[in-house]
Amino acid sequence: MRIHFKTSYDHDIRLFPDWWSFSIYAALVIVAVILPWLLGDFFLGEVTNVLIWAIAGLGLMLLTGQTGQASLGHAAFLAVGCYSCIILMEHGWPFLLAFPAAGIITGLFGTLFAIPAVRLHGIYLAIATIALSVLADDIIVLLDPWTDGVSGKFAPVIDIFGLEIERWSTPARFYWLVLAVTILCTLAYRNLLRAPLGRAFAAVRDSEVSATAMGVHIALTKAAAFGLSCAITGLAGALMGFFAGAFNNETFSITISINLLMMIVIGGLGSIHGAFFGAIVIAFLPQVLSMVTDTLGGGIAIPGLEMGVFGAILILFILFEPMGIYGRWLKIRTWLELFPFARKDMFRRQKSYLKTERLR
Amino acid sequence: MSLLEIDRATLKFGGVTAVNDLSFSVEEGEVYAIVGPNGAGKSTVFNLISRFYEPYSGRISFAGENLLDRRADAVADLGIARTFQNIELFDHATVLQNLLVGRHRHRRTSMIEELLFTPRVRREERRHREVVEEVIDFLDLQPYRDKMIAGLPYGVRKVVELGRALASGPRLLLLDEPASGLSVEETQDMRWWIDDIRKQMGVTVLMVEHDMGLVAGVSDRVLALADGAKLAEGTPVEVQSDPAVIAAYLGAPADGGVA
Amino acid sequence: MDILQLLVSGLANGCVYGLIALGFVLIYKATEAVNFAQGDLMMLGAFVTLGLSNAEYVGLPFWLAAPLAIAIMAGVGYLLDLLILRHIFGQNQTAVVILTIALGFVLRFVAGAIWGHEPQTLQSPLAMGDIRLGGVVLGMADVAVIVVTVLLTICLYQFFQRTKLGLAMQAASQNQMAAYYMGIPVKRVQGLIWGLSGAVAAVAGILFASKGAIDPNAGLLGIKAFAAAVIGGFGSLPGALVGGLIVGVIEPFASRYLAAGYSQIAPYALLLFVLVFRPHGLFSQVRVKKV
Question: Which of A136, A133, A173, A176 is nearest to A157 (CA)?
Answer without folding.
Answer: A173
